[in-house]
């Protein structure tokens, strides 16, 4: 088979919880104000949407598509973009970071899966750039999602993509002041499936992850997710997305503590293209949209910052799909969550670190 899929075990995947002792630093929002926490959500952009491969109708177009995909990934300048993400983190100094599309690209001998030679590891590259800037973060949780491999005969190699979601947490304060525990990952039972003339049926697994956080005796749960996208002419994408939201909300119905829910929801929170019922369902479950809570006039569009690749030039963002909600047992007013201190977008100016903008929210804790 020209296109092979691998999946990790259903349910909890391998977790990497890094425990560290204190490193005194004045730069964090929590260090300056122990009554607040700063959270960032950031889609790192895999460098391709795989459309060249997925559009293949025969072996010839597949070979051409695989070569074009490899070229597109290389042209996306993943190492340079990792440095720009690190600069954003240095500027905003979030306590917790929810990351999506933290892609691992690997190569291997032609038609001999699995490919194991690292081409680009977006997580390793970002962690290295953070270390260069003396920024103290650790990987609190990581989960692999979509994992696929395809031959690139023109290069004599296989190309493998592994999509991951990640939560990073700061480690520059004593555990008594800032503690992260109970890291967990979950796969959605609802999975998008579609057929390709060359590849057969393809499944796109997605999930959600969480950590429990204690800041100066205030406790809350941070949740990170990347919901299924919607596709023109394929209503199944929206159906799966809605089912995933229902699974997520059911799991978060009784957390016993406040919840900050972050991620790439692939659901437009403002009226416009690709607006789905996912955001409405989250709001109906008494989660407040932080952008709305801040009463900002700017619609805050986060996608797309450019077309299929950066070479296509700038686009006009028209969707707000990178979102942070507050909920759980947080007391919400008619206007949203009064505990949202500030909300900002990041990475909106070229050269871009991703086709998504990031969002940074500061929340006042109980």
Record the SSE blueprint.
Layout: E1 4-6, H1 29-32, E2 36-43, H2 51-54, H3 59-75, H4 78-92, E3 96-100, E4 104-109, E5 117-121, H5 122-132, E6 137-152, E7 157-170, E8 178-187, E9 192-196, E10 200-204, E11 207-215, E12 218-226, H6 236-251, E13 259-264, H7 278-284, E14 288-289, H8 290-293, E15 322-327, E16 340-346, E17 358-364
Parallel strand pairs: 2-3, 12-13
Antiparallel strand pairs: 1-6, 2-17, 3-7, 4-5, 4-7, 6-7, 8-11, 9-10, 11-12, 13-15, 14-15, 16-17
Brief rundown of the structure:
By secondary structure, the protein is α+β, with helices and mostly antiparallel strands. Helix content is 21%, strand content 34%.
Describe what you observe in this structure.
The structure is a single chain. This protein has 366 residues and is of the alpha+beta class. The protein has one domain: Endonuclease/exonuclease/phosphatase (Deoxyribonuclease I, Chain A). It has helices at residues 29-32, 51-54, 59-75, 78-92, 122-132, 236-251, 278-284, 290-293; strands at 4-6, 36-43, 96-100, 104-109, 117-121, 137-152, 157-170, 178-187, 192-196, 200-204, 207-215, 218-226, 259-264, 288-289, 322-327, 340-346, 358-364. The strands form 3 sheets. Strands 1, 2, 3, 4, 5, 6, 7, 16 and 17 form a 9-stranded mixed β-sheet that branches. Strands 8-11-12-13-15-14 form a 6-stranded mixed β-sheet. A two-stranded antiparallel ribbon has the order 9-10. The longest helix is centred in the N-terminal third of the chain and has 17 residues, at 59-75. The protein is globular, with a radius of gyration of 20 Å. The model is unreliable at 1-29 (pLDDT under 50).
């Amino acid at each position: 088979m020209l296109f092979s899929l691998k999946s990790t075990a259903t349910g909890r995947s391998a977790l990497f919880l890094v425990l560290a002792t204190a490193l005194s630093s004045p730069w964090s929002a929590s260090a300056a104000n122990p009554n607040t926490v700063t959270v960032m959500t950031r889609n790192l952009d895999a460098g391709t949407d795989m459309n060249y491969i997925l559009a293949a109708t025969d072996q010839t177009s597949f070979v051409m598509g695989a070569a074009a995909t490899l070229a597109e990934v290389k042209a996306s300048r993943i190492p340079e973009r990792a440095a720009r993400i690190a600069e954003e983190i240095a500027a905003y100094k979030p306590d917790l970071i929810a990351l999506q599309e933290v892609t691992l690209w690997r190569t291997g001998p032609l038609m001999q899966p699995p490919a194991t030679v690292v081409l680009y590891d977006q997580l390793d590259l970002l962690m290295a750039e953070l270390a260069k800037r003396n920024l103290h973060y650790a990987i609190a949780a990581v989960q692999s999602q979509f994992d696929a491999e395809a031959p690139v005969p023109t290069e004599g190699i296989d190309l493998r993509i592994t999509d991951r979601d990640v939560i990073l947490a700061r480690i520059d304060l004593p555990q008594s002041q800032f503690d992260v525990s109970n890291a967990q990952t979950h796969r959605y039972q609802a999975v998008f499936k579609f057929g390709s003339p060359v590849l057969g049926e393809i499944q796109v697994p997605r999930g959600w992850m969480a950590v429990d956080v204690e800041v100066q005796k205030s406790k809350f749960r941070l949740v990170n997710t990347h919901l299924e996208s919607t596709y023109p002419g394929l209503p199944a994408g929206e159906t799966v997305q809605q089912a995933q939201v229902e699974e997520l909300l059911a799991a978060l119905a009784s957390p016993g503590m406040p919840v900050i829910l972050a991620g790439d929801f692939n659901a437009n929170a403002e009226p416009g293209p690709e607006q789905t019922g996912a955001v409405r369902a989250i709001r109906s479950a008494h989660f407040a949209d932080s952008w709305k809570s801040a009463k900002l006039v700017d619609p805050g569009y986060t996608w797309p910052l450019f077309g299929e690749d950066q070479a296509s030039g700038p686009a006009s963002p028209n969707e707000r799909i990178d979102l942070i909600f507050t909920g759980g047992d947080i007391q919400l007013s008619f206007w949203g969550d009064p505990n949202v201190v500030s909300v900002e977008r990041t990475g909106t100016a070229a050269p871009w670190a991703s086709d998504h903008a990031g969002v940074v929210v500061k929340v006042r804790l109980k």
